Task: structure prediction
Amino acid sequence: MGLLNSTRVSAVVGGKEIILESGRLARQANGAIWVQCGGTVALVTVCEAVLDTPKDFFPLTVEYAERMYAAGRIPGNFFRREIGRPSDHETLIARLIDRPIRPLFPKGYGNEVQVLATVISADGVNDPDVLCITAASAATCISSIPFAGPVAGARLGRVDGQFVLNPTTEEQARSDMDITLAASRDAVVMVEGEAKLVKEQDLIDGLNWAHKAIQPLIDAQEELMKLVGKAKTPFTPKQDDPELFAYVEELAIKSGMEDALRTIDKMERKDARKAVKDKVKALMATDERYGEDAAAQACIGEILEHLEKKLVRQRVVNEGLRIDARDTKTVRPIEIETSVLPRAHGSVLFARGETKTLAVATLGSSGDEQKVDTLKGDESKQGAIEDVVSLISPVVASLADFYGKVERGEVDLFKDM
Result:
C-alpha cells in the first residue's frame, strides 16, 4: 500500500452517498475511519492501551470535536485557538456516540479504549454527528479490539408528511421530528430526540422505516471488515463461579441482608448493607476453601450487588413494595419553598423524598445573551442552565467537577423549557 493509498467503501442512504475510508490517515491507530457525506468530513480513530493495573469498570473514553477551520471560520474566543473543555454541543454528541457502542464491548474487558471523532470539514448541509456514530463503529470493527458490531447512526425527520433520513439543515427547519438513532442489523439500539405533537404510532413507523433504510451502512461496514479488518484480540469473558455465588449469598442472607434492604431511611440502609458486607468478609476469611483465596474475596462486592438487585426485585414482584416501602403507585412526598435566597432574582427549594434541589434564576437584558461559535455561524443563547449537583451531593465523594458530561446531559433535557 502506498503512503496515500486507502481502502474505500460507500453506501447510499437517504439518497446521499456516505463514504467510509480506511488508511487515509492515522494508520498507527488501532482503527481509523475517514467518513464523508457531501462536503462534510470527519476523522474517527480508536486506540487501545493495556493497563498495568486493571480497573473494575470498562475505561472507555469518547470525545467529539468540531474544528472551526472545518467551516472556514476563525474561533471568536480571546486566544483565537480552540483550547479548553468541549462545548456543551460537543459533549452531547460524544454521549450519542458512546451510548450505542459501549454495550458492544465484551463484559469484563479491561483495556483502556479511546474513541476520538474530529470534524475536519463541514458543508453546512449534512450534519457530522450521525456520521461519527457510524464511523466510530466502523473504526472499532476493523480494529483488533473485541467488538460485537457493527451499528450505524442516522437522523430521522419528517417533512410534509414524508419520512426523511439524514435531513439537510434546511429540511430540519421544516421537520416535525428530530430523532437521532443507532441500529444494528437486527434492531434499533438507541433513540434520542424530540418531536412536535407527533403521534406515537407515527414515531414507531418512522423508527421501523429508518431501521430498514440504514441497513446499507451495516453492509458497508461488513464489507470494509472483510477488506482491511484486523484479527481480533482473543478475550475470554470472566465466568461466574456458581458455587462461590451461592456460598456468598447464603452468608449474606444469614448476616441479615434482607432486613438491611428493608431499612427505609437511605443512609441507615447504606450503613446496614455495609455491616452485612463486613460480616460476610469476616466469615469468609475463616473459611477453609476461600480464606486464602484473594480472587474469591475480591468478588464479594459484585456478588452482593447481584443479590441486592434480586432481593429488591422479588419484593416488588411478590409484595408490591419498592425499596423505600412505597407501593408501585405512590410517589415520594414533594414540598416546595420559594424565595429562599434574599438577593437572587428568583429561587426555589424543591424536595422530593430525600432528594433536594436548589434552583436559582437570574434575569438579564438582550445584551446579556451568550454568543456561541458553531460550524454554522454565530448563535445566541437567550438562556442558560447549569447543574453543580456533584459538588454538594453526599452520595459520592470525588474530585469536584462543576460541569461534567453527566450534568451537561441532564441540563440538555431542560433547554427548551
Summary: Residues 266-285 form the longest helix (20 residues). The radius of gyration is 25 Å. Confidence is low (pLDDT under 50) at residues 388-392, 394-400. The longest strand covers residues 40-49.
